[in-house]
Amino acid sequence: MNRTGFRHLLLHLYRARGIARRYFITNGFDGALTMLGLLTGFYSSGTVPVSVAISGCLGAAIALFVSGVSSAYLSESAERKKELKELEQAVLTDLEDSDYGRATRYVPVMVALVNGLSPLLISLVIISPLWFAQQGFPIYFPPLVTAIIIALAVIFLLGVFLGQVSRTFWLWSGLRSLAVALLTLMIILLFNSGQ
């Protein structure tokens, strides 16, 4: 690939940033909400050791990563190939080696990585107090409570980011996301209280 082709490829990747941003928010929110659900479940049971909570949350985070990468790659790749074939039929030319053809192969990889890494990294941030507690670092609140507070804060910040993307009032958008998280938390506590 020459310099011009490389620049065109970068331009195609840059134009796909909106799709990557959408995947980042969607799957990041899924990751944060999944961690909140697991942590709340562990907290309400009252007897789960920190090491078990870390293993459970880490397993879910890895599953979210694999699911995010594979699902986004398969769906984006299929959509891009369909668009490429339609374009080839319209111009009656093979475009596999064109800039557009290369972008059809690289954009799904970029989107898949964003979709997989967002829930993994967010999950690792949320469960970090559990790991610090296990390593003997002093934590002011109990580790599960601290992790739940961080999960709520992350979900609020994702809402704020969403508000900035959509150019709506950031605080309202953050509070709306936080309300979803609190509702989830209350439902889990309600179900666990009956056991």
Task: Give structural notes.
By secondary structure, the protein is mainly alpha-helical. 86% of the residues lie in helices and 0% in strands. It is built from six helices and no strands. α2 packs antiparallel against α5, α2 runs parallel beside α6 and α5 packs antiparallel against α6 (170-193). The longest helix has 42 residues, at 50-91. This is TIGR00267 family protein.
Question: How are the SSEs placed, and which strands pair?
Answer:
Blueprint: H1 3-15, H2 17-45, H3 50-91, H4 99-134, H5 143-165, H6 170-193
What would you say about this model in short?
This protein is mainly alpha-helical.
The count of DSSP E runs of length 2 or more, i.e. the number of strands, is 0
Question: Main sheet?
Answer: none
SSE string, helix = H, strand = E? Answer: HHHHHH
Radius of gyration: 21 Å
Q: What general outline do the C-alpha atoms trace?
A: elongated
Query: What is the number of helical segments per DSSP (H or I, 4+ residues)?
Result: 6
- Indicate the low-confidence ranges by residue numbers: none
Task: Classify the oligomer.
Answer: single chain
What amount of the residues lies in strands?
under 5%
Taking all residues together, what is the mean pLDDT? 88
Structural class: mainly alpha
Helix fraction by DSSP (H/I, runs of at least 4): over 70%
Q: How far apart are the first and last residues' alpha carbons, in Å? A: 62 Å
